[in-house]
Amino acid sequence: MFEINLEPLFNGASSKIQVDHALDLSDIEISDSKPMTSPCMIKGVIKNETDIVSISALITVLYSGNCDRCAKEVTKEFTIPMEHTFVTELNDNQNDEFILVPTMRFDLEGLATEDVLLYLPTKFLCDDDCKGICPQCGKNLNDGPCGCKKEIDPRLAALQSLLEDE
Asked: Are strands 40-49 and 16-23 parallel, antiparallel or unpaired?
C-alpha cells in the first residue's frame, strides 16, 4: 500500500506532488503466465491545475508469458498511461470518470494495479505476425512451413475427387 495525502493539493497549499514508486506485482498471476517478477515503476505527477486534482503518470511493467499462438516464452515491456481525476465528492454516484477520495488520502498501488490489469492484452503474442503451430504435427510455423498436407473439409471431399479425375 502506497498512500498519498492529497489534502495539500485540494486545499491549494501545494500545486504538485512528484510520484516515483516501485510497485510489486509478483503476487499477481494472469492466466497461465508467470507472475510479474520485476517491480513495476510508476513515474509522474499529481497536480492541482485550476482546482482540478489529477494524476498523469506512466507505469512501466515487464510481463512474461507464453505466446497464445506458438507457446514460445516471451518477455515484453509495456508502458501504461495512468490518467485520472480526483474529487472529494460526487453529485452523481453513477459517474465513473472521477475517483472519489473523501478522506483526501489515496492508495496509489491499488489504482496502478487495476490500470495494469486492464491494459495488458487478452491475447499475449510473441509477435503480431505470429503464425502459431501446425495443428497436425505441432511444428512452430514461425520457423518455416511444416510440409503437412492441408486437410480437406469432409463436406467438400466429393468435390476434391472431381478435381483428381481430370
From this structure: antiparallel
Sequence-distant (6+) residues with CB within 8 A of 9 are 15, 16, 17, 46, 47, 48, 53
Model confidence, pTM? 0.75
pLDDT at residue 151 in the model: 77
The three grid cell numbers given for residue 82, joined into one nine-digit string:
495512468
What is the Cα–Cα distance from 11 to 130, expressed in whole angstroms? 53
In angstroms, rounded to a whole number, what is the distance separating the alpha carbons of residues 40 and 17?
A: 19
* Cβ 68 vs Cβ 120: under 8 Å: no
Alpha helices in the chain (DSSP H): 7-10, 108-119, 157-165
Residues near 8 by Cβ (< 8 Å), separated by ≥ 6? Answer: 14, 17
Average confidence (pLDDT) per 10 residues, the chain, 166 residues: 84 84 79 64 91 90 87 90 89 77 86 89 89 90 87 80 69
Q: Which residues contact 25 (CB under 8 A, 6 or more apart)?
A: 35, 36, 39, 40, 61, 113, 116
